[in-house]
Amino acid sequence: MQKPNTRLAGQTCIVTGGSSGIGAAVAMAIGQEGANVVVNYHSDAESAEQIAHEISKHNLCGDAIPFKCDVSKEDQVVDMFQKAINHFGTVDICIPNAGIQRDFPLHEMPLKEWQFVIDVNLTGQFLCAREAIREFLRRGPRPDVSASLGKIIHMSSVHEVIPWAGHANYAASKGGLVMLMQSICQQYAPQKVRCNSIAPGAIKTPINQEVWSDPESLEKLYDLIPYKRIGIPDDIGSVAAWLASDESEYINGTTIFVDGGMTCYPGFTENG
Ligand code: NAD
Predict the structure, then answer these.
(1) d(CA 122, ligand 1 centre) in Å
(2) Which SUPFAM superfamilies does UniProt cross-reference here (predicted)?
(3) Which of 132, 145, 253, 257 is most buried, judged by most C-beta within 10 A?
């Protein structure tokens, strides 16, 4: 880990799906900034414990704990927030990041696979955002640590704007996040809640391992990325830490694309 900054000292953050990939990098980046971190995990307790341990070891101002919870289950999300509040006093930053893919051509997609993806990727993010806002409103401002009442950063995807054949459940869940995020901003910005999304492009994590582990499909992927490299989880971690900090205070109700230019549709380059 690099030398810690303290842009988030005195604050507490819940990162869901924090035991791997983007969530792990986000948890580390937030911890490096001095915040307490709840590293949520679904099944990989060992990795979550390791990440929490790593954060605690290097965090000059805060601490980290692993916490098991299925984000698609209301009672478990409510319990996670309650335990986090009991342990750290409050929650200042919520980063609902957990997400899954279950890929099928639409005509072959079983309802349960549609529902599963919506439950985790969209309902899970709703449940976390709702509990975060309840806590922000209950607790009131903390001007000593942040100009905002609280911050929510949804982990979306370029597929909130790029259609994705064979992945309609995933694309629909991310498209739904845009309206969830903006509706939250519209309603709670007057109370100084900031709600934004990060939309990663192709980032090297377990979710897309079959693409980057095969040299041929990796080469094909570069056709979609003007910047000609696959992203790494730290590309997202650093943006999340900044977006959670007061340096980005006036950013509200928007999506930050972190995609090497993927949403500039490079397929059109030679078709002018
Ligand atoms: P990942 O598979 O490493 O991470 C997903 C995490 O979510 C895992 O830790 C998993 O255990 C957790 N999870 C799954 N179901 C859960 C549940 N019910 N409750 C709690 N946790 C659960 O993949 P990743 O790439 O790090 O994905 C993180 C987020 O980034 C996802 O929302 C994904 O859609 C988004 N994203 C990833 C990419 C990419 O290229 N990797 C691109 C765009 C968006």
Answers:
(1) 12
(2) NAD(P)-binding Rossmann-fold domains
(3) 132
